[in-house]
């Protein structure tokens, strides 16, 4: 046998390395001595040694069984802890996914609020609807007033045009009358001159 095989078999026989193989060897040797003992005292001494060795083997076996049971319970406990850890990891992934959704929603809400604030600032620079209606009403009244003023000015302008036309007609008639009077005066003077000339002859 190679050294590795010897060590492996020794470990299998020895269990957890508490020296069980040595105790068994001692028990076999004690049994052989007990069988070959010559006197009763030597046989009783070997018998006590065998009982002591058996007690040690039973104690070691009980200890090994307790360790085995403890290992089984530890394995069950580790499996439970492993399942708990897996459940915790799954719950953590779900929580992370939910947090990501909440972060995206919060980003959308923040973006919407920023857009609302920008629109509110733009709206604040413009008058409200009531004020705008008042301004439109005032502008309508002012436009109506200007229309009346325009009509009055046009009426006055038309009146002045007619008056100017009458004035021009009157001036023209007066000029015509003056020219006629001047022609009459010249005719009369010419006639008087002729009459004076005839009288002198």
Task: Explain this structure.
By secondary structure, the chain is mainly α. The chain folds into 2 domains: 1-122, no CATH class; 135-200. It has helices at 3-14, 20-35, 40-124, 129-200. The protein is rod-shaped, with a radius of gyration of 71 Å. Mean pLDDT is 80; it is low at 14-18. The protein contains 4 helices and no strands. It is found in: Nucleus. Keywords: Coiled coil, Nucleus.
Considering the chains and any ligands shown, give keywords for the structure.
2 domains, 0% strand, THOC7/Mft1, 4 helices, mainly alpha, THOC7 protein, 201 residues, single chain, nucleus, rod-shaped, coiled coil
Would you spell out the secondary-structure blueprint of this structure?
Elements: H1 3-14, H2 20-35, H3 40-124, H4 129-200
Region (Disordered): 180-201
Keywords: Coiled coil, Nucleus
Coiled coil: 75-102
From the alpha-carbon coordinates, what is the Rg to the nearest angstrom? 71 Å
**SSE-based structural type:** mainly alpha
What is the N-to-C order of secondary-structure elements (H for helix, E for strand)? HHHH
Main sheet: strands, sense, barrel: none
Q: What is the strand tally? A: 0
Contiguous runs where pLDDT drops below 50 for at least 5 residues: 14-18
- What integer is the average pLDDT? 80
H/I helix tally: 4
State the domain count: 2
Helix content: over 70%
Could you give the distance between the termini? 201 Å
CA-based shape: rod-shaped
What percentage of amino acids are in beta strands?
under 5%
